Amino acid sequence: MKKIFTKISLCVAVCILFSWACNKSNPTTINPQTSTLSYVLANGSQTTIFHSAVVKAGLDTVFNSPAIFTLLVPNDQACTQSGFSQSVIDGFTMDQARAWVLYQTYAGTALPFESFIGKIEEKLVMADGDSVFISGDSNRTFVNGYQFLNSELAASNGVMLALQNVLLPPTKNLAQLISTDTSLSFLTEAILLATPVPDTLRNTLATGGPFTFLAPVNDAFRSQGYTMPADLTAVSPDSLRSMILLSMIPSRLFSYDIADSSSYKTVNDSTLFFSNPGFQPAVRLLGDSTYSNIITLNIMATNGVLFKIDSLLVR
Fold first, then answer.
1. Which parts of the chain have pLDDT scores under 50?
2. Measured between alpha carbons, how far is 286 from 272 in angstroms, rounded to an integer?
């Protein structure tokens, strides 16, 4: 949607950096020429939770070595708000802590924010083998649907970039996201009924992509007179298939990638037009005057991104 950014003042930015890096007793002990990532994490005032996970994972010695890393670090507040309080980390096994930290670790290169300027869903394979997707401009940087804080800190063996949320790798493909979401029960049934070949669309949503999928919630079907998913058996399979294909864009898009008044082709060569009037993002089929409101953004799947909409996209 339309990118809106209010610049953080130099004073605030300095304060954020200071709070990240400061030693609890003596902030002057951190030197970017000699202090390793492990040392900075251990002595930062806002990295206690992340550092405890690093220690539990046995990675503190790794981040103290000459090897170069980019760490995407959620501060303590971000960890707690994302459901990863200190007590949760304390309950991790070593393997759980390792997986949690490594998905937020890029090995081999120090990547400051400026390296992402002009990138759109730049794919980085993280140290656990899963991928993150980063977009950026001169003011903002995003990863997996979340915005970074405008704060980075150099160490002798890499760089730390501040996250507003904990990053977790997606575990479900688009088909699984839809079929396990009770607010998408009608859509699940529509996908199953959309022949000519049984399961074709479900298989595509499971193994194809990446796609951006605009998923109509149950109330979108109810507003058309369907009271339960089984009612969709009265609809022609071709109509159901057309509706689903109209909702599939053949690329991975997060909300910040989609500019106001932009348009995208779907997999069946239709055109979707996006609007952001300032309070509610929406989408419509080009040539149609009725918009569907986008009510849930940026649900990441292994093969794309899912948005939820409040009405059907139909010809």
1. 1-27
2. 6
